[in-house]
Amino acid sequence: MAKILERVSTFLTDVREELKQVSWPSREELLGSLLVVFVGVALLASFISVCDFILSKAAQLLLR
């Protein structure tokens, strides 16, 4: 049991050291990326919705 606790402690220490080396984005970079993601998702959702509508209407016409 002591060996497991030692390994967990070593792991957490290593994680803390690695996190100190991470290059975190600034607030402006983060908000810019967030905006790009939201716009991309909205565009993709719109495209899929339009395709679904067109294909459902085409299927209705073919099945009449």
Outline of the structure:
With 64 residues, the protein is an all-alpha fold. It contains two helices and no strands.
Structure, explained:
The model has no long low-confidence stretch (mean pLDDT 96). This protein has 2 helices and no strands. The protein is elongated. The protein has a domain at 29-64. Helix content is 88%, strand content 0%. The N and C termini lie far apart (70 Å). The protein has 64 residues and is an all-alpha fold.
The proportion of strand residues reads: under 5%
Alpha-carbon distance between the two ends: 70 Å
pLDDT < 50 stretches: none
Order of helices and strands: HH
Number of beta strands: 0
Shape: elongated
Structural class: mainly alpha
Helical element count?
2
Portion of residues within helices: over 70%
Radius of gyration: 25 Å
Chain-averaged pLDDT? 96
Largest sheet data? none
Main attributes of the structure:
64 residues, mainly alpha
Chart the SSEs and their pairings.
Blueprint: H1 2-20, H2 27-63
